[in-house]
Each structure stands twice: as C-alpha cells, then as structure tokens.
C-alpha cells in the first residue's frame, strides 16, 4: 500500500516529472520555470555512469573547475633570433705591405646585412713574377712559411700588376662572427708544379702578413645556453666555453637524445638545431651520433 499522499502543487510537480513534460512551459500549459534553481536536496546531482568520462564528471562536480593545461609543443617556442650587423658596417681595415715593398694594398671587411661579410681589396700592386693570393687565418703566420691551407675567404688577386687592381671577395667560412680570424696572409699563388722559381716565391709561400683588428658591434640573441649538468640521455662533456663562461660546444655521448641535450642547456630543440645546421639525428627517437660536436654559441653558427 502507498503510505505517501501527494497533494496540491507538489503532486503536480511529481506527476509532471514522471510524465517527462517540461517545466519551462509548452503546449501542455505546465507551470512556469522556477525563479531559482532547485537545491541539492530537491534535485540530486547526476551520478556518472560507466560510459561517462570520469575526468569530466570530476570537473562538473568541482566548485571551481579548471581547464586542463595544454600539452607543451615546440610550435609554441619562439624562433631563435640573432640580430644581424647592419649592411655596410666596416668591421676591420688596414694596409698590407711585403717586407721588401713588392706588394701593397688596402683591405677592409664590411657586413652585407644578412650575417655574411665581404672582404674588399683596393689599390693592389705587385711587382713579383707570380700571382698573389690572400686569405684570413685563425692564428698568426710568418713570412716564409709554407701553406697547406689557403685560409678563409681565399682569393687570387693577380700579378704582376702594371696598374692597381681592386677586388671584392665573399668571406665564406667565417661564420656570423669573423673576429676569430686574426691574420691576413698574402701568399704565392704560383702553380705548385712550377720548379723554376726562387723558393721564397714558390707556390704556397707566405709573402706578407698583417694583423687583423676587428670592431664587431654587439649582437642580440634570445638563445642563452646554460649547462644544467650531466644527466640521463645528455651525459656528454662540455668541450669549450665562451669568454663569459657559457658553454660553447658539447660532445654527444652514447644514448644521448636531442630533447634531453636541449633541456640540459635550457634551450629548445628548435634552438639546438638552429645552432647546428648540419646536425644529424638517428631514427624516430632522435638519438644523436656519439662523438658529434654540437655548437652552443649563437655567434659561432
């Protein structure tokens, strides 16, 4: 027997709820919507079923639900930047003369505005019976030395020269900061197989040298590697540092992963690849080649 008797409006609410009709009004002429939402005691919160997402149910039940934190992606990382030196900026210049006065010219290096540079040679004269070549070197050379390498930005200026010669040469191979090139070397560009020349002007012999003093403007970058210490999958050694003590190069250890190496130095994978245009990654897991040296200095790209 039913011991509860519903009366008045309460009975109508129960009846409507059981019949499935809307309380918001409709063709059945039901009661208008309540002005305040029903309390928890009147309308219990729905219980998540087995097919519902339990995380969604938890968020709905929370008094202050929060949206989930988005997964971090490399796409959200700012692109690495190194501000270029303005085009036309003179980085170094000077005069060159051989010890006996056979060779004279003026040189200067200017920025092209896109992280490249051009060496400009003007007023080149040489009375030697061989063509002369020029190149920049990272260490000092002496007149009379024999060269096995022509230097950075090497070029033949000609000779002997009955009239002064001028020539512009791209300083290829200097990187974005050429200030590590400390000596300009003039050498004999005679054919190495030519045997009828005095030894002091034979092919590859240094004929003149000039110290190079650079004035490179400050560059701005958003890539600042800091060594966080060896760790799993980034256990190789830092093999060089900059003058300020920042890591400059790193040697890849066995099982290193590019993401872990980037994290060790506090930079993104995008930045690490930008610092190393020729970086090679092995397989989908991005293992690096053991023994590879990675550059970490934006100015040495």
Automatic annotation (TrEMBL):
Residues 1-24 form the signal peptide. It comes from the Bacteria. Coiled coil: none annotated. Keywords: Signal. The keyword Translocase does not apply. The keyword Signal applies. Residues 248-296 form the LysM domain. Residues 32-54, 222-244 are annotated as: Disordered. InterPro entries: LysM (IPR018392), LysM_dom_sf (IPR036779). Residues 32-51 have a biased composition (Low complexity). This is LysM domain-containing protein.
